[in-house]
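Homework help thread (please don't just give me the answer)

Our assignment gives two proteins as sequence + structure token strings and asks us to describe the second one. The first is just a warm-up. Here they are:
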Amino acid sequence: MIAAPRELTWELTNDLESWPRLFSEYAAVQILDREGDKVTFRLTMHPDENGTVWSWISEREADRGSWTVNARRVETGPLRAHEHPAGSTRRCPAVRRCAGCRTSR
């Protein structure tokens, strides 16, 4: 649970340009297209231990009326599918620690 008003949390987490300040794993966000509540953007991570910079293109469409966001990767980038503790299969960065499953690549 987040100890903040819903509206503030919504504004902060949906302000894509602030993600590099909000999430330490991201180095940059580049907005490629914005059409209403739908945003296409490139997300870039900080260099890994080998100096490789991982990047991919995603699309998000926020619906404030239902407090939901539909998101998908347009360009998948370097991801690997694996099981998470809850039993769902996810694709996570291939060379990073996965926050959902706490496993290292």
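The one we have to describe:
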Amino acid sequence: MLSLFAILILLFALILLMVPLKGTIYIYDVLIQDIKHLLHQINMTVPHTLRERNQCSDFMTKLEASSDVDLLLHESPPDGLVNLL
């Protein structure tokens, strides 16, 4: 079983993998390669889901993009998300 730290690193890498490089040298390249190697060693695959298929994630992403707050914690699902659950 993966530790919480390993899971957080994997999530961080997944976020970085989604960012377009646009021809620049990426400072996290070594970290991403290490995580890919770790995933290969433990025989784990990370499937991709189109955002149209994941309406809850898409909703939260749009909500964050329209906010000017750096961090927002929700004690309950925001209005509009409950209908998607």
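TA reply:
I won't write it for you, but here's a hint about the kind of observation we're looking for: Residues 4-41 form one domain.
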